[in-house]
Amino acid sequence: KSVNHLHRPGFHFQPPKNWINDPNGPVYYKGLYHLFYQYNTKGAVWGNIIWAHSVSKDLVNWEALEPAIHPSKWFDIGGTWSGSITIVPGKGPIILYTGVNKNQTQMQNYAIPEDPSDPYLRKWIKPDDNPIAMPDYTMNGSAFRDPTTAWFSKDGHWRTVVGSRIKHRGIAYIYRSRDFKHWVKAKHPIHSKQSTGMWECPDFFPVSITDFENGLDLDYTGANTKHVLKVSLDITRYEYYTLGKYDLKKDRYIPDGNTPDGWDGLRFDYGNFYASKTFFDYKKNRRVLWGWANESDTVQDDIMKGWAGIQLIPRTVLLDSNKKQLVFWPVEEIESLRGNYIRMNNHNIKMGQRIEVKGITPAQADVEVTFYVGSLEKAEIFDPSFTLKPFELCKIKGSNVTGGVGPFGLITLATPDLEEYTPVFFRVFKNASNHKPKVLMCSDARPSSLKQDQGPLAKDRMYKPSFAGFVDVDMADGRISLRSLIDHSVVESFGALGKTVITSRVYPVKAVQENAHLYVFNNGTQSVTIESLNAWNMQRPLQMN
Ligand code: FRU
């Protein structure tokens, strides 16, 4: 079956065809980055899932290897679902993954490389003493999955966290083992929260509260750390995370009071981003995040295209120096794909003005822009009684709705007459009492495509949400920056150096390939200055599977 390339990304990770979902078992081992992922061998919808496997020297160019795991044993014949890798001293890398049996019961299994000295880790064995964890009578056997990378503690135990739920309570169970074979569930879950539903793909890792430049490995035992617990919520299809404290003795995680635990929590990405997973990169001392972006197109069109799903550009993860949230930035290696380059400096944009960024290929580009806003005099007052969520606020205050300071930002994947466009922008409000800014960031897919909706069911309609999040900045120097990685049907945007990240998937009919344009705009009464803008063509990696 042929693959339609009109909206196919140029520099995002993707196999030649078919459906993909979660990134699995990312690891750096013997000079190679490994990425496994959920893959349908037979088509462009979810099903027939195996662990596909690719390796890379640089997180940019990828080589596909044979699949690592596929259903073959009683403990995984109904599915080989998500999981992780742990490098166990003396043994090498070990996969923990969820197997589904013929009765749809989920359990945790392990697999070991046939030859741990092979940097490619081509062949994987599932020992016969699997599974390592079965749901007991207190648990929900159809909601028990996605084991995390395990960590070793001074008390001589390995620990891994597994996602689950009981009724509507989301749960993260913790298991302990001395030998990585016999695992025992701790008496209490490491954490749980009512009314959040199934916790898919939990991720649990430490961050430094004194070093804001390097990542930490899971077994780091120094003081001065906080922990991050991230979960993916299957009902709403988004993730949230909290910062908190991990009490090793009690094996409990307690979120800080100031990071909400539940639907309104912080997110790695406020857009199309799910089932993410981090790993510690020994080569560069950083924690790197992989996340999956599903298509937002109709299922029918996914099938016609012959492919669905991409992995987003890996991002480094650090604690923000305010210690209240994480910050994310595309790994530096991606900059090796930057080609033709143009720049703009000190360019004033008045209200209603739109300036074209010419001289690059707007459908496949990397754009960084720093805006100088200066005074917040004209900023609209942020009404504290506003109970609107960012998403709803962006829906009302779209890119065309005149404001005081903003909306201003980028117009990506646009036709010159704006029949189609995906704006990524800020709108700066201010607090009535102390005049501190309250910054809204939007990535609005509503005007992205002229394609007509096909039918009454969600799967028959394109998903074009007004994704949004607040950006926690004081703008003391009057500046705010925005970077967007644009890749045909992907717009991955980083506000204020990664404080707020939003990814949209869009499918323009006209604004494609060489007919796509890129602009900088301002629809606020106060003029803003493009202090600097750097934009590059992005080249295709030499090898992508
Ligand atoms: C998340 C998820 C996981 C599961 C896998 C199955 O997208 O539902 O919970 O392990 O995908 O493909």
Brief account:
This protein has helices spanning 299-305, 390-396, and strands at residues 18-29, 32-40, 49-56, 63-69, 79-88, 92-100, 106-113, 124-125, 144-145, 151-152, 158-166, 169-177, 184-185, 191-193, 199-208, 225-233, 238-247, 252-255, 274-281, 286-293, 307-308, 310-311, 315-319, 326-330, 338-349, 353-356, 364-372, 380-382, 405-414, 422-431, 437-444, 466-471, 479-487, 490-495, 500-505, 517-522, 528-538. The chain is mostly beta strands. The chain folds into 2 domains: 25-332, Tachylectin-2, Chain A; 338-538, Sandwich (Jelly Rolls).
Describe what you observe in this structure.
This protein has 545 residues and is mostly beta strands. The chain has 2 domains: 308 residues, Tachylectin-2, Chain A (5 Propeller), CATH 2.115.10; 201 residues, Sandwich (Jelly Rolls). Helix content is 3%, strand content 47%. A hairpin with a 6-residue loop joins strand 23 and strand 24. The longest helix has 7 residues. The radius of gyration is 23 Å and the shape is globular. It starts with 17 loop residues before the first strand and ends in a 7-residue tail after the last strand. The model has no long low-confidence stretch (mean pLDDT 96).
Q: What would the keywords be for this entry?
A:
545 residues; mainly beta; Tachylectin-2, Chain A; Jelly Rolls; six-stranded antiparallel beta sheet; 2 helices; 3% helix; binds beta-D-fructofuranose
Write the layout of secondary structure elements.
Layout: E1 18-29, E2 32-40, E3 49-56, E4 63-69, E5 79-88, E6 92-100, E7 106-113, E8 124-125, E9 144-145, E10 151-152, E11 158-166, E12 169-177, E13 184-185, E14 191-193, E15 199-208, E16 225-233, E17 238-247, E18 252-255, E19 274-281, E20 286-293, H1 299-305, E21 307-308, E22 310-311, E23 315-319, E24 326-330, E25 338-349, E26 353-356, E27 364-372, E28 380-382, H2 390-396, E29 405-414, E30 422-431, E31 437-444, E32 466-471, E33 479-487, E34 490-495, E35 500-505, E36 517-522, E37 528-538
The protein binds beta-D-fructofuranose.
